[in-house]
Amino acid sequence: MTPTVKLLIDGRFVDSTTSEWRDVVNPATQEVLARVPFATRDEVARAVDSAKAAFATWKKTPIGARARIFLKYQQLIREHMKELAALLTAEQGKTLADAEGDIFRGLEVVEHAASIGNLQLGEYAENVAGGVDTYTVQQPLGVCAGITPFNFPAMIPLWMFPMAIATGNTFVLKPSEQDPMVTMRLVELALEAGIPPGVLNVVHGGPEVVDALCDHPDIKAVSFVGSTRVGTHVYQRATLSGKRAQCMMGAKNHAIVLPDAHKEQALNQLVGAAFGAAGQRCMALSVAILVGEARQWIPEIVERARALKVGAGKDNPDLGPVISAAARERIAALIGKGVEQGARLELDGRNLTVPGYEKGNFVGPTILAGVKPGMAVYDQEVFGPVLCLMEADTLDEAIALINANPNGNGTAIFTQSGAAARRFQEDIDVGQVGINVPIPVPVPLFSFTGSRASKLGDLGPYGKQVVLFYTQTKTVTSRWFDDAASSGKVNTTISLR
Fold first, then answer.
1. What is the pLDDT of residues 86-116, one digit of tens each?
2. pLDDT tens figures, 126-150
3. Which of 55, 248, 283, 497 has the fewest Cβ atoms within 10 Å of its own Cβ atom?
4. Per 3-state DSSP, what percentage of the chain is helix, strand, and coil (rounded to 5)?
5. Is the pLDDT reported for residue 431 higher than 80?
6. Residue limits of the Aldehyde dehydrogenase domain (predicted)?
7. pTM here?
8. With 70 as the cut, is the pLDDT of residue 488 above it?
9. Ramachandran category for residue 335: left, alpha or beta (phi over 0 → left; psi -120 to 50 → alpha)
10. Strand intervals (E) in 182-331
């Protein structure tokens, strides 16, 4: 019997009564690992009701007690790291080493959640007027929801529910239906760490479940990571229902390579950032702009990419399969379209067969040179191991090219010139900038700050920004009267003096 993925409602893992199911498939072998339900509207409503009921007591739980749960949780994640990585690799395809990195970057946010006592502080000013004091408190919103993608089934859920719950909210999570198993194991560990019944709930499904979360009147905020198409829909639908929403969406991340860059370091980092996780990262460096003499480095980029090993994630190669056969076919079609539109195919990763895994969804590192705006392979997010090479004569020309792209998730520059790096970071219109750092995702002391078409909503996930997203600022102005000091007069003016 193929195992079934459960729902989590009110602290219990329960079987769905739905008639709609989807197979969870190992992308390296096509083995069916489990079946995941598409929850009914009644089940989504029950999950939200449970979260709403739990909020009444959870919001009054002392902040130290909340923090201690996440201290325990981070310990449990560390203890189960190998198990979690193996599960993630089986259902998502990424290498074991990359799976551990996926989990670790989520673990950093759990550790940050344990510091909530320092993060959720208000402000205080004494005697702002005669005997009047003013202070603010950061109070939780209520029930919040999260919708997560297939490419980081550990990290992205851990971006969401720990910070929401640590700030006093309750949560309904909808993991990706393509690889929910590692997410559910992380949820089991969260309950073991002490999260009370109803504070964290999980439902599975597709568009109907997403819409139900966006529409439900008791959900106060929705966090989303995924494609631009779905993210735009979620933002519009959730905000139309009066909710807060933050949507991290698609990308087209560029790296500028200047001829004065440290050549070995720049090329190695560029290739690693382009092809790691089989290119299935919203922060993958999918475009390199070679400036001036750096355009002569194309053969060496190709040489490094050709040397990468492709295989099943459990064998720990350099890159594993893409998530599905449909994804593989879409990537191959975009490569073909790029060639048709005039790009030069320097390295072709299509039609790759891995011995022993002939049914796997493999695409090898692919490099297209001479890419220009207007080509489908440039205009669309490929989300596969495809690197587009472009050329520019000057740094200013390269910056203008990046700023003309609608996306603003991440960018990088490789140079040894401080002046060039300074001009780049000032003039580039992208939310996250790397200087000799290919994937500039910040640690949780800061926040994820994609911009323009890559993000909808003002506040990013994790870090200080997400504390503001998951809380409502309440301002209290108080005055305490001494009987002897009371004038006993009616004052009809606005002044408090």
1. 999 999 999 999 999 999 999 999 999 999 9
2. 999 988 999 999 999 999 999 999 9
3. 497
4. 40, 20, 35
5. yes
6. 13-476
7. 0.96
8. no
9. alpha
10. 200-202, 219-225, 244-248, 253-257, 285-291
Give just the sign of the alpha carbon dihedral 32, 36, 38, 40: positive
Q: Can you tell me whether residue 414 is helix, strand or coil?
A: strand
Residue 494 is predicted with a pLDDT of: 78
CA distance 223 to 234: 9
User: What pLDDT digit, counting tens, does each position of 174-209 carry?
Assistant: 999 999 999 999 999 999 999 999 999 999 999 999
Check: CB of residue 135 under 8 Å from CB of residue 476: yes
Helices and strands counted in the chain (H then E) = 16, 22
Is 163 buried (19+), middle (13-18) or exposed (0-12) by CB count in 10 A?
Answer: buried
Note if 282 is an active site residue.
yes
Q: How is residue 65 annotated by DSSP?
A: H
Which tokens belong to 62? Answer: 């002392």
Contact between 194 and 66 (Cβ < 8 Å):
no
Active-site hit among 144, 214, 247, 282:
282
Radius of gyration of the chain (CA): 25
DSSP state, residue 270: H
